[in-house]
Amino acid sequence: QMQLVESGGGTVQAGGSLRLSCLASGRTFSGYVMGWFRQAPGKEREFVASSWDGGSLYYTDSVKGRFTISRDNAKNTVYLQMNNLKPEDTALYYCAARWAGASLYDAWGQGTQVTVSS
Question: Which is nearest to 34 in space by CA: 12, 17, 51?
Answer without folding.
Answer: 51
